[in-house]
Amino acid sequence: MKSKLKIGIALSGGGVRGISHLGALKALNEVGIFPTKLSGTSAGAIAGAMYCQGYRPEEVLKIIVETNYFKFLRPAISWKGILKIESIGDLFKLYLPHDDFAQLKVPLAVAATDIRKGKVVYFDEGELIRPIMASSCIPGMFEPILIDKKYFVDGGVLNNLPVEPLDGICDVVIGINCNHLPEESNIRNMKNLIERAVIMSMNYNVYSRKAKCDYFIEAHGLGKYGVFDIKKASALFQAGYDETMKVIEENPSMLELANPNAKHLSV
């Protein structure tokens, strides 16, 4: 008899690299592994919200590729950021019209950073869209998001693999990171140097939580892709899928998590 354990999946942030999470979810679903609860930071929060809404991973990939994300962004006349991330709220409302954590088909928690208090906050109830935007608010690039008189920025600043909302609730936790850095023998320019240093910092707080995961999935080399390199969407999706299938093959105990009665309900 297959296990009916409560399964939690934590998804890291990583910009467009987060598309690989969709490939990982597709692979897990194909072998009968479905999350009881999902948590995410930044890109992981966006991918997680769409999945928990009921969209299949392939559907989310199609939406991302066909949507001109950048046309929704507006300049910010402020010292706090270059762009207003709030302007993409209308885009989220097209796919998450209820704007309510409670209306998701799978429970979700998203991590954001309270920039004034310097602490991580996990959102899992009430309005949905603003916490997702807060979780994705890259400091310096986007203006902070105001929620309940508090300013929030990207959750990855302090927690880029939010396993904490799954702790004590789920029997098994699967962590998925999309920022593995390949070795680099030649730092080509300042941009390359800064991007690499930022990813190293993000990965440091991911790896500090790796021990809290029963299984850890990390497609190699994804750190070489740029945060906004949307042209690589299909390759990123495939990388997440392939790595997850490899991890399942190397860890046959994962198949014991399969629940043949669980189905991912499409909207």
From TrEMBL:
Biological process, per Gene Ontology: lipid catabolic process
Signal peptide: none
PROSITE patterns: PNPLA
Motif (GXGXXG): 13-18
Alphabetical list of InterPro entries matching this protein: Acyl_Trfase/lysoPLipase, NTE, PNPLA_dom
Placement of sequence motif GXSXG: 40-44
Active site: S42 (nucleophile), D154 (proton acceptor)
Domain PNPLA positions: 9-167
Stored CDD domains: Pat_PNPLA6_PNPLA7_NTE1_like (cd07205)
Keywords: Hydrolase, Lipid degradation, Lipid metabolism
Record Pfam families: Patatin (PF01734)
SUPFAM superfamilies recorded: FabD/lysophospholipase-like
Top-level taxon of origin: Bacteria
Motif DGA/G, residue range(s) on this chain: 154-156
GO molecular function: hydrolase activity
PANTHER family, sorted: NEUROPATHY TARGET ESTERASE/SWISS CHEESE D.MELANOGASTER, SLR0060 PROTEIN
Official protein name in the record: Patatin
Organism, as annotated: Algoriphagus lacus
Native organism taxonomy: Bacteria, Pseudomonadati, Bacteroidota, Cytophagia, Cytophagales
